[in-house]
Amino acid sequence: MPLTTYEEARPWARAIREEVLTRRMPKWHAVRGYGDFTNDPSLSPFEIATIVAWADGGAPKGPDTPAVGTNASPASRNENDGKPVDRTVRTLTLPCGDQPLPVGRIVGIEPRLDPKGSVGIAVRQPDGSREIVAWIRGFEPDFRATYWLRNPIVTRRGTRLIATADSRCSVVLSIRSSR
Fold first, then answer.
1. pLDDT at position 71 over 50
2. Helical H runs in 26-159?
3. DSSP 83
4. By the 8 A CB rule, do 164 and 96 touch?
5. C-alpha distances in Å from residue 16, one per residue of 8, 24, 145
6. CA torsion, points 101, 102, 105, 108, in degrees to nearest 10?
7. How far apart (Å, rounded) are the C-alpha atoms in residues 129 and 138?
8. Confidence band (pLDDT; 50, 70, 90) for 62?
9. What is the reported pTM?
10. Cβ of 36: how many Cβ atoms within 10 Å?
11. Average of pLDDT values for 59-80?
């Protein structure tokens, strides 16, 4: 159901309140504390309190505001997430498990799991150190997302992806080549 206008959202105010309080809305399957992502849509405590107060106050309509546009031209944007297109990034799909990685920088991950599946994703460097990338749980194929890393992970020769899942799984990596 779309919730893009007041008229669409108003009848669902109580349900929106509950979904926001239980952190099921907005949809985001990455577990807090396991990875840091630039496109995390999670709400702040202040935003949650504002939505709860709105619902508890009878869901009043606020002032109408004009839509805000973007200054970027459509040709320079990726249709999925509004990020500028980076032609130096390539994708690589790997099955879950223990897999070798190419040299470069991991900038994004997109897990592909069975419905309601979970996966823990880490990188093991050649020196044996391990970095947690993400823990994705309650996967919903209709709400697939690429999780863009705030701090890319540098991979060297001998770096491995460790993806442990409770169902069939693969991981699509967005990798920027080293220069």
1. no
2. 45-56
3. P
4. yes
5. 12, 10, 22
6. -60
7. 28
8. confident
9. 0.75
10. 14
11. 55
